[in-house]
Amino acid sequence: MAGVRTSIHGEWSSKLAFVLAATGSAVGLGNIWKFPYVAGQNGGGAFVLIYVACVAIIGVPIMMAEVMLGRRGRQSPINTMRTLAAEEGRSPRWGLLGWMGVLAGFLILSFYSVIAGWALAYVFRTAAGLFDGATADFTAQVFSNLISDPEKLIAWHTLFLIMTMVVVARGVAAGLETAVRFLMPGLFVLLLLLVGYAMAEGQFVHGLQFLFAPDFGKVTPEVILMAMGQAFFSLSLGMGAIMIYGSYLPHDASIARTSIAVASADTLVALIAGLAIFPVVFEYGLQPNAGPGLIFQTLPIAFGQMPGGAFFGTLFFILLVFAAWTSAISLVEPAVAWLVENRGHTRVYAAVVCGMLTWFVGLGTVFSFNLWSDYRLFGRTFFDLLDYLTSNIMLPIGGLLIAIFAGWLMKERSVKEELKMDDSLGYRLWRFLVRYITPVGVGLVFLNVIEVI
Fold first, then answer.
1. What is the helix (H) or strand (E) element at residue 28, kind and residue range?
2. Residue 453, pLDDT score
3. Which of 174, 184, 247, 275 has a CA 20 to 30 Å removed from the CA of 298?
4. Could you give the 3-state DSSP secondary structure of residue 377?
5. Main-chain phi, psi angles of 362, to 5 degrees
6. Of 202, 205, 192, 210, which Cα lies nearest the Cα of 48?
7. Across residues 239-257, what is the average pLDDT?
8. What is the pLDDT of residues 170-208, one digit of tens each?
9. Which residue from 276, 208, 234 is spatially nearest to 40, judged by alpha carbons?
10. Cα separations (Å) of 423 from 72, 253, 254, 403?
11. Following CA atoms 295, 297, 300, 304 in sequence, which dihedral angle do they give, to the nearest 10 degrees?
12. CATH code 3.30.70 for 15-449
């Protein structure tokens, strides 16, 4: 029995605080542009239905398992897995699962910070009216000038990391919770403002059709696997972030209800973002399938032509920064928590150390776009290699092992005690999904994306 184990780092003041923090971790840059685009190009409403089903069948069960492990261990992912493995009579090597999650979060933040720095740079460029009347050639040149200049990228990368570490250094209550209580409502308000603008100035009906009109003719096995992978990755599973946030969850909070709330909010943000972006894209005859270029090259053209474009364009890039900021905080928290627990450092010192290491590794991503752009390792730039390693290998393996440990290796008494679900229908459904369906789903995703390097 876990007894009255508590976290030395503190606790969320309420269930709402956890939902906001975990949603902030899940909502990132990919929600703003990738999900709406993927949905629109792969069956619209049909893809959305498949995605929601995958969230329910794969995402929520793994999230519940990860939150459960975190709350039962009440420590960093590394120490949580060691403690729970010993408690359940399992091999201490399960601590490696915690290590992999912490390492994945650290590596992701190293390149995520660089991309978030682009969004920061565009806040100021758009606010200054740089894109007023801009042409496609001009916006492409602005973006090229930014990423080809390592000094500028390092400056924005540094600024974003400082913003992140200041929040993390302040702790759970004064730092993380205070930040998400401001940033997450702010993100929703900005989204709704942009949707209102899209309704007034864009082709809103076209945008609705692009996202929600079901085209089952586009649904193939590959599309189903794509929806499955998107559901898994969009919830920040397998990287230690949800586990460490779960360790701060009050004991009286329902893990099932809070996990469902987080998954629902994450999906809602992605869909609303699509309603904010694509009516504007269609209004100005732009291409909706431009990927990252949609944000940094295509949308600035629209902002430069529309009434009030500088103001609403600035709001859009602030929205991107908010989304990136809340995700970045969760990516580094597991490593900071481990340093505090195992090395006796203060949170300030631990945040500085993690920030400096992340900054240094992030230089590889900075140089991938300029000085090292011609260098390849296994056919990939430094940035591409980190992205591939974390997203396609480390996170699926992490999610699969979480499902196996929670579903097969923990004593059922321990699981019921932490989930507080007894032998209800909901518990039996979760246990069936996490033991049988979820591992198969994650395994299929993993096999679909893995390549021979």
1. none
2. 44
3. 184
4. strand
5. -60, -20
6. 210
7. 94
8. 999 889 999 999 999 999 998 999 899 889 888 999 999
9. 208
10. 19, 18, 15, 19
11. -170
12. no
Residue bearing tokens 């992140």:
164
The arithmetic mean of pLDDT across residues 124-142, rounded, is 93
Cα 44 versus chain centre, distance: 22
Alpha carbon distance 81, 98 (integer Å): 6
pLDDT higher at 227 or 156: 156
Q: Which amino acid is at 97?
A: L
Pick the more confident residue, 284 or 323: 323
Tell me the whole-structure pTM to 2 decimals.
Answer: 0.93
Helix (H) or strand (E) holding 349: helix 347-368
Question: Encoding tokens for residue 103?
Answer: 């390492």
Please count the other Cβ atoms lying within 10 Å of the Cβ belonging to residue 344: 9
Query: In 3D, which of 210, 209, 193 has the Cα closest to residue 201?
Result: 193
Summary mean pLDDT of the chain: 91
Interatomic CA distance for residues 268 and 262, integer angstroms? 10
Amino acid making up residue 441: G
CA distance 41 to 223: 10
**Quick one: which of 317, 285, 319, 289 has its CA closest to 301?**
285
Structure tokens at 7: 């976290």
